[in-house]
Write a structure and sequence with these properties.
Elements: H1 2-19, E1 27-29, E2 33-35, E3 40-47, E4 55-62, E5 75-82, E6 88-94, E7 104-110, E8 118-123, H2 140-149, H3 169-177
Antiparallel strand pairs: 1-3, 2-3, 3-6, 4-5, 4-7, 7-8
Helix pairs in contact: 2-3
Length: about 180
């Protein structure tokens, strides 16, 4: 039954991505509430202009995994939830972290009728300073993540290693000073 649910949710995510330009609703995520010791998180937010009986899908993967190379063995959590009349939704989730190498995960949230998939980083551990991709290494992937998002008004949230809302020289120095550690 779980494999069927995962397959349906995965198919929903791909339909959301392929058809997102035809709809007007958007998803705004709140900052995730992460309990590192219990390996649990609450991901919540609001959908603008939800359709009647709207559903939201969440897929949580290792941060080093993107939706373009997603496979069943990379999924840490998947579920669907109804959208309330006021557009709000919430997921309470637990991660079986022993199954995964990284301590950072990305939660992708979307649904039918939305313009794009939203994402949030779920950090369940300290990890290495400068390891922005969550793969356990501070390497060229982390460097490229910062350089490719440097000083841009919209950026990949993983590139903000300092968590100050900007990808700037502090994030660059964080990676460079810890490179190959």
């Amino acid at each position: 039954m779980k494999k069927i649910l995962k397959a349906v949710c995965l198919a929903t995510v791909f339909v959301m991505i392929l058809s997102c330009s035809a709809f007007a609703a958007t998803i705004q995520l709140d900052a995730p509430d992460v309990d590192k010791e219990a390996k649990t998180a609450v991901v919540s937010g609001k959908m603008s202009d939800p359709a009647a009986d709207a559903q939201i899908t969440i897929v949580v993967v290792e941060s080093s995994t993107s939706l373009s190379n997603l496979s069943d063995d990379k999924i840490a959590y998947v579920d669907q939830a109804p959208v309330n009349e006021d557009g709000t939704f919430s997921f309470s989730l637990a991660i079986n972290q022993e199954k995964f190498t990284g301590k950072k995960f990305t939660a992708y949230v979307g649904g039918t009728g939305v313009t794009s998939v939203s994402s949030a980083i779920l950090n369940f551990g300290e990890g290495k300073k400068g390891d922005l991709t969550g793969d356990g290494f501070v390497d060229i992937e982390d460097y490229n993540l910062v350089v490719n998002n440097f000083n841009k008004p919209t950026f990949d949230e993983r590139a903000d290693g300092t968590g100050d809302g900007y990808v700037d020289i502090e994030d660059y120095n964080l990676v460079v000073n810890n490179f190959n550690t």
